[in-house]
Design goal:
386 residues, alpha/beta, Aspartate Aminotransferase, domain 2, binds pyridoxal-5'-phosphate
Length: 386
């Protein structure tokens, strides 16, 4: 099915189906073969060439959602991130990465780039000046992530894209938190979109996968690198991801609605010091978020009032589960002090704006009154004890 002019729900439901010509089943069959004929065929297929029938067809759904010519599916978000960065960076090149990045991406750069002779600079902030200062003559890539984790800071897509275009630098975004439902960076001129499909695209906390979307020319470069690095996804998981993505819009919209309601409720609560959600007018980047996002997402964070114990709060919850990951249909929370930012010193955390009482909530699709009631009763319990 051609995706031009189709709505997002139709794309999610139909684009990139593998047609069942043999039995005319309503859904894609799974082709598990790792061995295909090489004579008299258009494409030499092999799972690590990222071109089995299921891989190839699901890529079309991702490309249609991001509004790009092409896309690829990977075995994890980090396989997508590492392959894409290494596809465009070689010895002597320099990459500018925004401050506030997913921990795994930060570790990839800090722990691996030296051995390849790739130089890097993290920006001091997210404004134009901070990016301009970080750029060097040998800069080949600018890499951003918006909204960021866990404080939901927003980076100006149009500003970064213009800077990249003017200077001949490729721009990349980790679009995991927003999803293409809430944010289409290509519409603002960003070159390459990267996803941990483990998160919203999968959405049920049971698939580990990644995705990249870009122009056909950029995807060609990434494809050549991906064969060497080998981060492909098994066809069974590809099929699971296709199934999950049929409901992506429904899930994300419900998560948007829930998160906005919960953020507003938290803002008014006497036991809560601060709420970080880009859809709140009180968020410092609200205007920017409004300009470049069509929904504000299901991720938010908040700080408990001083003296309230975050561990006791977590223990008092009945519905919301503590979880390292995010973006499932179930609401989960994480305490950055103990998980994503646990290896930092309290001083380093403070510098990054991560208070010890900070809680990051991944809002699910449950009824919002039940999520709010769970938070309310847990806040009440810790406040009475304090
Ligand atoms: C989880 C995550 C990743 C890494 O994805 P994996 O699927 O765990 O490899 C990258 N970026 C963001 C924003 C993430 O949340």
């Amino acid at each position: 099915m051609k995706s031009k002019n189709l709505g997002l729900n139709t794309i999610c439901t139909h684009v990139g189906e593998v047609e069942d010509k043999q039995f005319k089943g309503a859904v894609s069959p799974i082709y598990m073969a790792t061995s295909y004929a090489y004579d008299n065929v258009d494409v030499k297929r092999y799972p690590r060439y990222f071109n089995t029938p299921n891989q190839e067809m699901l890529s079309k759904k991702i490309a249609a959602l991001e509004g790009t010519e092409a896309a690829m599916i990977f075995g994890s978000g980090m396989a997508a991130v590492s392959t894409t960065l290494l596809a465009f960076l070689r010895k002597g090149d320099h990459v500018v990465l925004q401050k506030a990045l997913y921990g795994g991406t930060f570790n990839l750069v800090e722990e691996e780039f030296d051995r390849f002779g790739i130089e890097y600079t993290f920006t001091s902030g997210l404004d134009k000046d901070a990016f301009a200062k970080a750029i060097k003559p040998q800069t080949k890539v600018i890499y951003i992530e918006t909204p960021s984790n866990p404080l939901m800071t927003i980076t100006d897509l149009e500003m970064v894209a213009a800077m990249g275009r003017e200077m001949g630098i490729i721009t990349m975004i980790d679009n995991t938190f927003a999803t293409p439902i809430n944010q289409r960076p290509a519409d603002f001129g960003i070159d390459i979109m990267i996803h941990s499909a483990t998160k919203y695209m999968g959405g049920h906390s049971d698939i580990c996968a990644g995705a990249v979307a870009a122009s056909a020319a950029h995807m060609e470069v990434i494809w050549h690198k991906s064969k060497n690095l080998g981060g492909s996804l098994s066809d069974f998981s590809v099929w699971m991801l296709e199934r999950s993505m049929k409901t992506l819009v429904l899930r994300v919209k419900q998560q948007n609605r829930n998160a906005k309601k919960i953020a507003k409720w938290l803002l008014k609560n006497e036991h809560v010091r601060a709420v970080y959600y880009p859809g709140l007018k009180s968020h410092p980047d609200y205007e920017l978020a409004k300009k470049q996002m069509s929904g504000y997402g299901g991720m938010l964070s908040f700080e408990l009032e001083e003296g309230l114990d975050v561990d006791a709060f977590q223990a008092a919850l009945n519905l919301i589960k503590a979880s390292m990951s995010l973006a499932g249909v179930e609401s989960t929370l994480t305490i950055p002090k103990k998980t994503s930012h646990g290896l930092l010193t309290p001083e380093e955390r403070k510098n990054q704006g991560i208070a010890d009482g900070l809680i990051r909530l991944s809002v699910g699709i449950e009824d919002k009154k039940d999520i709010i009631e769970d938070i309310r009763q847990a806040l009440h319990k810790v406040a009475v004890k304090a």
